Amino acid sequence: MLLDAPRPDALGSTRDDASAAEAPRAATTRPPASGCGIAVTVRDLRKAFDGHTVIEGLDLHIPAGQFTTVVGRSGCGKSTLLRLILGLETPTGGRIQLEEPAGASRRNAPPKRIMFQDPRLLPWARVVDNVAVGLTGLGSRKERRERALAALAEVGLADKAGQWPATLSGGQRQRVALARALVSGPGLLALDEPLGALDALTRIGMQGLIERIWQQQGFTALLVTHDVSEAVALADRILVVDAGRIALDVRVDVPRPRRRGDPDLAALEGRILEHLLGESPAA
Amino acid sequence: MASTLLNDLGRRATPWLLPALALAGWQAAVSAGLVSNRFMPAPLDVARAGIAAASTGELWTNLGVSALRAIAGFAIGGGIGFALGLANGLSRLSERLTDTSVQMVRNVPHLSLIPLVILWFGIGEEAKLFLVALGVFFPIYANTLHGIRSVDPGLVEMGRVYGMSRAELFRRVVLPGALPSIFVGLRYGLGIMWLTLIVAETISASSGLGYMAMQAREFMLVDVVVLAILIYALLGKLADALTRQLERATLAWNPAYRTA
């Protein structure tokens, strides 16, 4: 169950997924079909802020389409890892390689998207225009609007299209942010503790929504969270990061849909928590 | 139905209740002889003076001259302040180059320059334009700069991640984010615009509302003096109402500016 190195079949799966991605990506009201995931390979990654090391020689391979969750105590470098992979920070050393699905040219390559902990909606743009931000530079105005409306319907907010973000609840705003991240049919979706600020019930609803859309679209998902039960519920694979390295790499082989309170999941959750707590008894 | 109409009417009338009461009390005090007509003419006398001045065309000429000065001075000073505020908000180099100087000049009360300005420009139009522009410049500059600085960096990062170009980032994120603060500057600027213009016209002018008031003082025409003051009050209110309208139109997204 423990994996230190990338799985050998990773490259193969990229190709398989890519052939499925030939499905029309044309201007329709539907987002692109599934199987457009980006594979991520990280080699000897290092990052320091003002001489203070955050990531220290990290190696990682994420095959296309995998749902990977990164957990760790706060300050362990998990968010930095995510931001490095997304290109929001420049690494101090090492290499990050993103593998586009085969057949995707430079121009129509599926984008990388990130969902932040706060929704970061433009307060001065209507909900539908906020979603259309996800299509910046793609297609005509009318097309963008149509796709934005379809994405809003996907997250169950079609009736809020003309509202200002200020009138929405926290959970609704985060769903708008999700629609914005997904509207362009991303190949990689990074989620930086996106549900941390939501109440427990809303969070469970959002987890289900993210899982369903991920299954439909087949992008590579990389979720950073401090909530181990969330990680266990959603992930194909859980990475425990400690002191800038991957301390534990666990596959979650429980079939979907997963039932809350499943004994296998509970056992796994217990194991990961033990690992997290065991690393530093003082914490 | 009738009651909601009445309610609506009542709500609209409320802000004018206090000024109307003040006018009525004033009229009553003068009519009853409590206040000498020599020092404080009754509202009706002021109205009569207003009609007289309007019928000779003198009022309109002076009003037009003053309004033109105000608008031109505001456009010049506000335009430069806005442009420099944008430049310094967006470029560190520009800020390092100019902000210290601007802050130094800002601390000189611009009305203290009147003697100098009269020496330079005489009592011509340039003097008034210069003073108004200078006065309006600072609040607009400072608030534009502050508005741009206080745009949520998270939103800017979001815009970058979503592939916005610099121009798009400015148009869709930075400028709308700075707008509430820019409006604060606009309001301050409008206030300073009237203040500066009145002072400048009172001290050195050969036309305009301030000049009209000073001429009236020479001839002890107290009603005309009061008329000029009232017109200033109305003009100030008008400028404020226009700004409010503009705010409502552009800041409808902000719950703080939404119409009740």
UniProtKB/TrEMBL annotation, chain A:
Residues 1-34 are annotated as: Disordered. The keyword Transmembrane helix does not apply. InterPro entries: AAA+_ATPase, ABC_transporter-like_ATP-bd, ABC_transporter-like_CS, ABC_transporter_ATP-bind, P-loop_NTPase. Gene3D superfamilies: P-loop containing nucleotide triphosphate hydrolases (3.40.50.300). Keywords: ATP-binding, Cell membrane, Membrane, Nucleotide-binding, Translocase, Transport. Pfam families: ABC_tran. This is Aliphatic sulfonates import ATP-binding protein SsuB. Residues 40-268 form the ABC transporter domain. Residues 20-34 have a biased composition (Low complexity). GO terms for molecular function: ATP binding; ATP hydrolysis activity. The keyword Ribonucleoprotein does not apply. Signal peptide: none annotated. Belongs to the ABC transporter superfamily.
Automatic annotation (TrEMBL), chain B:
The chain crosses the membrane at residues 67-87, 107-123, 129-148, 169-186, 192-212, 219-239. GO terms for cellular component: plasma membrane. GO terms for biological process: alkanesulfonate transmembrane transport. It is a multi-pass membrane protein. The keyword Transcription does not apply. InterPro entries: MetI-like (IPR000515), MetI-like_sf (IPR035906). Keywords: Cell membrane, Membrane, Transmembrane, Transmembrane helix, Transport. The keyword Transmembrane applies. Residues 59-243 form the ABC transmembrane type-1 domain. Signal peptide: none annotated. It is found in: Cell membrane. The gene is ssuC_3. CDD domains: TM_PBP2 (cd06261). Its main location: membrane. Belongs to the binding-protein-dependent transport system permease family. This is Aliphatic sulfonates transport permease protein SsuC. Probably part of an ABC transporter complex. Probably responsible for the translocation of the substrate across the membrane. Gene3D superfamilies: MetI-like. It holds the Pfam family BPD_transp_1.
